[in-house]
């Protein structure tokens, strides 16, 4: 059952068995999941996908599990929306929103990676899972661990939005706040992982976790009518999602699900307050320099992204680019999407929208081409960032005369 052959080092190519490991013991390169693509090609077709479940598991053959999914049965298959109003506003012909702000169960794309990781944790017989998180991962691990009947240990920076904290605590995990940034949290979790027999979804299960993101890419291609867009704009934190979307497109090409060669240009979006990847792209560096995050886009505030090198390389390879935006532009981006398309995204989505706008203005995105914006999280979780940014709301007595005084026509 399943088409996973093992793990493979992205750098030296050494192979390893399917185990909860993530670093090559020879060269310290990251490991990735190896699939039997020949067999998948024989077993998967457009027809089979179309008749599959309306969830990320319609692409199960290309996901890193051996048996049936244990959680996340309703995760994925989120809407791809033609953004007609925003198209006009930005002066482009064909703009889409891949809307994971309505993903199940915790309203971000992280539900995809966690569904894979928790299923793997069950396959590996773990009794507890953990994660280092910038917020959305915490929500999803807590929720899906609860569903799976596993204990969860969740570590976050101490300054996260209240919505992300409550949205974790509600599921009854063990939550620990760490004084510092995500990078400090991650470093500590790596040490904790050595001493505790827990499945850290984005550390020892990282190869399996990351591949959950591929489903976001498969869905874009399927929902565009078995095509890939000319451009895709992706918010970057650890730089995993951006690489997996493109990987998904290429795999669809490889197994003949797509007719045309994938020519999608991949664009990285970050907040200027934490922009190691886009800074490297703009300066022509091969590797990023770690930074200390300082931005309201907390969910993507990773100063030393694990897959930064691969994200930088990919944008270059595909003819894409990277751009970052100010705190004010993040707010403006959230409001622009809400006011034009009726979609309330979180700060990371504000980054994506404003970066897309900037790339169009710079001519880096051709207005005659098709573009998909990756909206990856829900605005109700980050309302803190918007407090005080609207004009005062009138408060009146329940009298018609009072209302008339406001002068609305
Ligand atoms: C985690 C996250 C990302 C980026 O994920 P990486 O794969 O780590 O780059 C983007 N958007 C949101 C809302 C996230 O929570
Ligand atoms: Zn290696």
Kindly describe this structure.
There is one protein chain. This protein has 409 residues and is of the alpha/beta class. It has a domain at 80-106 and 210-386: Rossmann fold. Helices cover 37% and strands 16% of the residues. It has helices at residues 37-43, 46-50, 84-90, 110-123, 136-148, 162-169, 182-195, 206-211, 214-223, 240-254, 276-283, 308-317, 327-341, 347-361, 400-405, and strands at residues 4-9, 15-16, 31-35, 80-82, 94-99, 128-132, 151-157, 174-178, 199-200, 231-235, 265-271, 321-325, 370-375. The strands form three sheets. The protein has a six-stranded mixed beta sheet, sandwiched between helices. Helix 10 crosses helix 12 (308-317). The protein is globular and about 75 Å long. The mean pLDDT is 97. Bound molecules: pyridoxal-5'-phosphate (PLP) and zinc ion. Zinc ion binds next to loops.
Low-confidence stretches: none
Discrete helix count: 15
Structural class: alpha/beta
Shape type: globular
Nearest-integer average pLDDT: 97
Secondary-structure element string: EEEHHEHEHEHEHEHEHHEHEHHEHHEH
